[in-house]
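Students often ask why we bother predicting the structure of a whole assembly rather than each chain alone. The short answer is interfaces. A chain on its own may look different once its partners are present, and contacts between molecules only exist in the joint model. In this exercise we take two input lines together and write out one structure for the complete complex. Read the inputs first and try to guess which parts will touch.
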Amino acid sequence: MKIRNKKYMFLLAGVLLTGSACKKFVDINQDPNNPTTAQLSLLLPSTEISLAGNMYQLNSGTETIMQHTMWSTGISRYQQQGTDYDDSWNGFYSQTLNDLESVISSGTTQQQWGYVAIAKIQKVYLYSLMVDMWGDIPYSQAENGAVTTSPVLDKGADIYEKLLVLLDDGIADANKITATTLVPSTSDVFYGGTKASWIAMANSLKLKMYNQIRLVDPARSTTAIRTLIAGSLINTNALDFTFKFGSGQNPNNRHPWHRVEYQSAKTFYQNQFFMDLLFTSDDPRLRSFIYRQNATAGLNNSANSNGYYGRNPGDGTAAPADLARRADFGVYPAGGLYDNSPINNLTAANLYLTNTGATGTPKVIAVTDGTGAGVIPLITNAMVKFIRAEAALTLSTGDDARANFSDGVTANLNSVSTFAVANGGVAIPAASITGIVARLLQQYDAANAAGKLNLVMTQKYIATYGNGMETYNDYRRTGLPALRGLLSPLSTFPLRLYYSQTELSANTSFGANASALQVAQQITPVFWDK
Amino acid sequence: MTWVRDFFVSFNQEINKKSNKCMQKCKETRKVLFIQLMRISVLQIISLFMFSGVLFANPGLSESILNKRLSINLKNVSLETALNNIQAKADVKFVYSSTVIPLSSKVTVAASQEKLSDILTGMLSDLGVNYVVNASQYIVLKKNELAMADSLMINALLANQQHTVTGKVVGKDDGKPFPGVSVVVKGTKTGTVTSADGTYKISVPNSESVLVFTYISFQTQEIAVGTNKTINVVLAESSNALTEVVVTAAGIKREKTTLGYSVSTLSSDKLAQKSEPDPLRALTGKVAGVSIGSSGGVAGGATNINIRGSSSLNGNNQPLFVVDGVPFDNSSFGNVGGQSSGASSVTNRAFDLDPNNIQSMTVLKGAAAAALYGSRAANGAVIITTKAGKKMSRKGTEITYNTSYSVENVSGLPEYQTKYGQGTNNDYRQGVYGSWGQPYVGVQSILPTRATIPAQLTRSFSSAVFPQLYQADGVTPIQIPYRSYSEENAKNFFQTGSVYENALAISSGSEKGNLNAGFSRTNNTGVVPNNEINRTSFNISGNMKLDNKFYVSGSMNYVTTGQKTPPIGGATGSIMSALMYTPTSFDLTGSPFENPIDGSNVYDYTGLDNPYWSTKHSVSTSNVDRFYGNLVLGFDPLPWLNVQNTAGYNAYTDRRLNVRGKGSSSYSNGSIATDDIYRQELDNTFLVTANKKLTPDLSLRWILGNNINQRLTDRKAFYGDGIIVADLNTITNTSSVTPIQLTNNRNLLKQRYYAFFTDITFDYKDYASLNLVGRNDISSTLPANNRSYFYGGANGSFIFTKAFKMDDKILSFGKVRGGYTRVGNESTAYQTAEFYLVNSPLGATTGVGSIGSPFTNSNGTYNSSTLANLLTNSNLKPEFITELEVGTELQFFKNRIGLDVTYYNKKSTSQIFEVTAAPSSGYTTQILNLGEATNKGLEIALNLAPFRNPDGFSWDISTVFTRNRNVINNLGGYQQFVFGGANGTSSVHMVGSPYGLIYGTAYARDAAGEILIDPNTGKPLVSGSLKAIGNPNPDFTLGINNSFTYKSFSLSVLFDLKKGGDIYSNTVGQMLSRGVTRDTENREGVLVSPGVLGNPATLQPILDANGNTIPNNVAMSYEDLFFNNGIGPGGVMEGSIFDATVFRLREISLAFQFPKSLLKGTPFGSGMISVTGRNLWYYAPNFPKYTNFDPEVSSLGVGNSQGYDNLSVPTTKRFGVNLRFSF
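Now the answer. The structure tokens for the assembled complex follow.
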């Protein structure tokens, strides 16, 4: 019996020993793959890259609505779905804005005002854009998953007010930095950390926002814009707030339009309206914007045209096998090929879109064509000039509408030309630029007030190619330019975009209204859309 | 005739004499056997050497017993006392009949270090008693025949004569000698056991004696002696389920009759030899409560298994697999990298088990059965005993060889229409992947027919590539006949597949221990070219009783599985992408698929690879090396106490190569991704078992246990962009290589737990049993304050027929059982702390909106870090499943009718699940710890034996019925959660609805449920948001197996029925919308879709002046209906939802057992040949008739998202021939 007890004692001792080692044994739930903290210098570039990366659906969809291109026939026919922009919505909130909040909160704690300033300015840019797109969106309760996973929708107008305050905060934070750079150049994809550039961008953003809401309270916008045009704005192409993609394929850093179109499976059609607009107005930017794979393809895949084979807005018919024949994105902004082939039906009246020096032949584009290092023009010098022109024409800002119009056109022609040259294209001769501007000013001078605004907005529409969000805003604010009627619309012109289906399904604050709320987006104007 | 009898009597006497020299004879027999076997194979010889050591040890041992020397001094004691004394001193055992041996006779023994043989001889010879040592080391005492003759001469002719009976016991299955069978004279202590050659010799007191032959798990036989001197016995394996011993959780063996819960066991003959290389698929239709989902006709496709419905909302719902006492990982890792070949084509790792090597498979269905396994068996457990791990090997050597060969073909292809070719709007149109074109010549039609078309490939390929397709000018395409190829295109693409299996198993054993070894090889070539899976496995195991109350056993298995597959399974670029709806006028078979200049893809469908090209150039591989084994060390310190430790190891590496060939149309540079997955599991279980009779009627078994477990997954994946030399599939042959980030960069995952448990069973008499179970887990995956959690339950059974001693004429057996159990479940690793991702892709998760990191543009290179989109939960609590289970087992008319009914109600609460988060919260997924779901179900097994004649015709029917109803009761305030899915659809949990509904675009409807129709187009309007459009959960499943045996023939036929359950079928949707099947043949008219007119902007019905809805009055063509967003499957996803009810002839097998006479003179002890057919016929009534679609496919493989067919490979049917020989 005693011996047996000893045996049990050993057993018990064994169990107890195991017990003391047990805590360590199960203390292994630390993720060995990922850090639990992040440096501001790594977070900030993440916000800038994801801002552009998440824009693909939103930009392509609004470009389609605005007849710059045609990404989806459903959207082209004004029929929206909850999955159309869900990647953009989901990514903006879960990546870009989430990381921006991280930068703002930990940057504030660490008194890294340069990071905080850039983060606040970007936050204002993105949130204001999102209000423009969707109207009422989560703001005050957003980005706080630990507290609520179902943030309520805030009114767009209220968000705008808060953003204008936040923008001033951001500028104030930037001014706490005395150096010329806010952050190290390796942490800022847009401006390499340059303080003056960010201040100019912030002011231009404010200008854009006040112009956007000018119909709500014209007097307030007038006052604000008067102040802004006296200060520092984006006033050279070098200061453009533009996201520049890279040419790497692995990891893939290319412009999404290049990625999706410069392979044999394609998604887009080019828009017949836009191509016709440039073609008939003798605009040499057509060669940069559009690349023809075939010299004679035309509407409905015919074979006796000029190669500018696209689709009319609202054409919902099934696609024939024309992937190797469609006209496609050119060098600007997608980073594809410059179309240097003769156009077979140009008239002798054309002065600037000509076959002079057109030595190329159309080819079927492949992934090896072009660099893919395209751009998304977010707020450019040209856009700022056009905003000033529009404001001068519609509000009494005291600005020179004609000069701004002229500067805007010039800035964009130069910008496109420079980009084309840098990416294997051909420059628009300086004489052509002055000639085009002179011709436009002639039309401008001859036009009445409405005609002047139409000219400004139409030129802005062309100059903003590659950024569907702004043209969509401009159209809803001014009704310009006049778009082509749809072939077979499925709905009315969407006044707001559909919410992300993911948000609708997962956000309990929508409740049972989710479906009705979604349908109402189509016909409910944004607060500034009077 | 008496001379005949006399001859036999004398012959038998001769035999009897010889049997005294048994050892000698056995040796001779073995030598003969040995020589015979030498002819067979080297492997066998090697094994035989190993076993012969065990066998030949016996004679030596028995002699050594008698050579034991001992001192003993007894005066005038009874023989019984003397024997007991020797028994204690020499550690030997005597076997004798008290009626024969004069136990009370006085003997005197005085010996000092004398041999036992001498002592015994001296002591017994005067009493006329002989002795012999038998194979089991017993010393058998017998009355000396001569002495008997002297003393009992007078009674010699009387009926009550005490005489000796000899005989031989053989096994029924193999006809081989059966050693170790206990032979006892009923009602006495007299007994013996059969020797190695199956013979026995026993003295019986009189002719009214009855001999009882028993062996565990074999049918006990009782034979009246009468005047027989020779009684030969054939022992059959016990088929009576009522005395079945089953392996329950933690390896505890219990009699099935005493269990308080339902378990199902399938023996090897139900699994092996069925032309089904996947052990899980072989289960289909055979076990109530188990649902098996296969992914169509992919060789090595994933198989989803579910027991009693899905209860975890988002976590793992697969049962735990336990092989020989050690958990066996059954993961199915999805592919990563450039080209996804679809989840369904990646096998789940239970495939590494060879059905030929499975001795038995026990399904522990409910929480009660599986509680001891803890968390991981919350969804039930499948306990597999391999042949390598079986303990109860009969003594002697057995070599079994199985071989089978099956051919497989696609089970059903659609009936294609042969009237209209490629095009739209009744017009031939090049490159359009619809067959709504012009009719062919000779077709009765109001439309003009067409005779020729320009060669299709000229659309994309110039005369430089295919000069033969151009006229002499090199510009004008040649004209080719416009005719139908629809009946050949898909049919010619699929090939005849095969399954070729070879398995060799060797087992040998003795009283002390045994050894098993096996080798098997399975080669399954799929119906898709270049899709195959091979499995080679080796195993060896043994167990040994040691002299000092210890025993030890162990097993080691090595499996290597190689899988090869072109892109399959619904992903874009899959060979199935367009195959089933190839334009009817395109000659897929005859058209070239490789560019003669650079070998790149040639196809008329832009952006997709020609399936022939893919099967040649984009073949991905997976090579698995798996080791698993265990070591069991046990100790029986006291007769009622057992201590046992089982240590197990189970690990594999899966080396994958995912190839998108150079020249692919989806990415002409091609790419190669490598993915090395290492999965390891270590497990240790320590058990102390006490078995005590508390009173004569009440016995207790108490188990205390400890279980420690660690799981590790280490995965490394790389993407190589741009293949340099075509078809050289190694990642070094690419122009740049970057690491692939897995979801949340979780490459390395490690989790552990340890647990203490107890299992207490009270058995009252032989009819009542109560079992209490408790377990406490401590898991690494939960926060420190919540990581320890206790759970358990109680269950019991009561055999009322025995308790009330009921008349067994009608109800021969009746039992009720019930239990209530709660099981806790842990989380997965690293779900409690927030984390950042370094240089992860930014922007959209996939597609062109995703920007790779590090990011480089003209300004420089930027490293980045982003907060992960997973909202972790630092306060996680374990989830719990509670289950109430009640059931009854009834046997009528002496087991002619058996009924087993189980009802369960399973509730899962505080679930841990990862769901989609509202992105505006800053996260896209979140870990929740709430919610409640219930599964209620009924399982019925009904067995009928209309005819039962052991020598003649027998007919058995076994029926299993399963019905499960699940409901999501609560999602913690949320109304729905969306997850999984394919091709734009997904799955959704909705409060108040069944588990995992199919979620997608739906028709807009009015309040009355009428579809709203656009008055401008006549087409249906699409609802504003996605909706639940189908319920994939079946109403019930039914399997009916009929088996017939007649003499050496046996036939079994298994039908099954799956009633209800929706499937989203993109295959059917595409075939209809592309107008390729006969369903859309009659198309030259217009029709009006049902529905009412609606406003496209508001999605409200348009009302007439009276406020009533207006029925649709807009007509459209058939093509629009199906192809262009009409009401058919080509538009809204809701149109592609079908009811997946299917009847099926699952399995038919005819076997023939070679008669002994045929095998005489061959080395084979027994032989069997069978022919098997699988999935020979099916009928899915609710699919469009001519699609001939078999809904038993799943594009998503293993997981909770089910009910999707996204262009799956069709199912296959198999015919096989199987041979089994044992030596």
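Check your guess against this: Residues 1-62, 145-160 of chain B have pLDDT under 50 and may be disordered.
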